[in-house]
Amino acid sequence: MTAPLRQAATVLLVRDGEPGLEVYLLRRTQGMPFAGGMTAYPGGGVDPRDADTDVEWVGPTPADWAVAWGCDERTARQLVCAAVRETFEEAGVLLAGSTAGEVVPDVSGADWEAQRQALLARETSLAELLAGRGLAVRADLLRPFAHWVTPPGEQPRRYDTKFFAAAMPLGQEARDVSGEADEAVWTTPAAALAEYEAGTRPMLPPTVHTLGQVGSFADVAAVLAGSPPEPLAPIMPSFAVEPDGSWAVLPDGTRIRMVVPLTS
Question: Using CA atoms, how far apart are residues 261 and 36, in angstroms rounded to an integer?
């Protein structure tokens, strides 16, 4: 029996650093039910309450995002809100602000931490958190970047994952706060991929491929410039075991080596 697809959102949080464009990566703890030991971006599955319609909104509408992702408006709203919620839960970064277009400058205080914990425990929703502070989802801080679908043969978890890119908001700091990671780091895509090739930073094929894509941009402004005029084509890899190793094979023929994390 094929496992059902779950909608998920992942965020490539980027900044302009001294060595050039940097991306924020987390290494998931060993023993996690999905991708344990792997380096990934902040993200996760959507929560039903991510579809709340009473959340304030700045930027491209759910209808606009529905076009970008090739889905219905409710799912598009869920995905954008899940991207904002997961980034706050896993990195302590909140892509929200006033309806006038200002980004909340600091979310590191004890009161913010209590609300972040409440989100993690599903004791409150993103809409409730934002409404209580008079804030809006800043959908204009996000751009659609990639769309990956887990193949049917992968059990027991399959995801229909939308990858967003977002600039690190000024005044905020990304923090290792999720409890699901044993390392959090800002690094250049090239450095992360070099560690992957050396076998010291295992990553799933979508992370490897999107790091290569984002690494082709000179800076954050280039990453965020524009958005796809039509739905991003979903990428569903196949897998091959050959004498030289295991590979994920993309529809365009690109091959990505599968690297298994070391167990402790």
Answer: 8
Provide the angle, in degrees to the nearest 10, between the axes of the packed helices 126-133 and 73-91. 70
Residue 172: both structure tokens together: 């905020």
Cβ within 8 Å of residue 221, ≥6 positions away: none
- State the Cα torsion 242-247-248-250 to the nearest 10°: -70
β-pairing, 255-257 vs 39-40, is: unpaired
Pairing relationship of beta strands 43-45 and 158-167 according to DSSP bridges = unpaired
What is the domain-level CATH number for residue 178? 3.90.79.10
Range of the domain at 199: 5-225+232-257
Question: How many domains would you assign to the chain?
Answer: 1
Residues forming beta bridges with residue 60, ordered by sequence position: none
Phi-psi category of residue 253: left, alpha or beta, with phi > 0 → left and psi -120 to 50 → alpha: left
The verdict on residue 58 lying in a domain is: yes
Residue 152 neighbours by CB under 8 Å, 6+ apart:
2, 3, 158
pLDDT at 263 (0 to 100): 45
Which range of 82-91, 150-159, 175-184, 226-235 scores highest in mean pLDDT? It is: 82-91
pLDDT of residue 231: 80
- Bigger pLDDT: 22 vs 52: 22
* Number of Cβ within a 10 Å radius of residue 15: 16
Structure token pair of residue 16: 């302009």
In a domain, 264, yes or no: no
Our CA dihedral for 43, 12, 64, 137, rounded to 10 degrees, sits at 70
Report the mean per-residue pLDDT for the chain. 89
Amino acid in the structure at residue 130: L
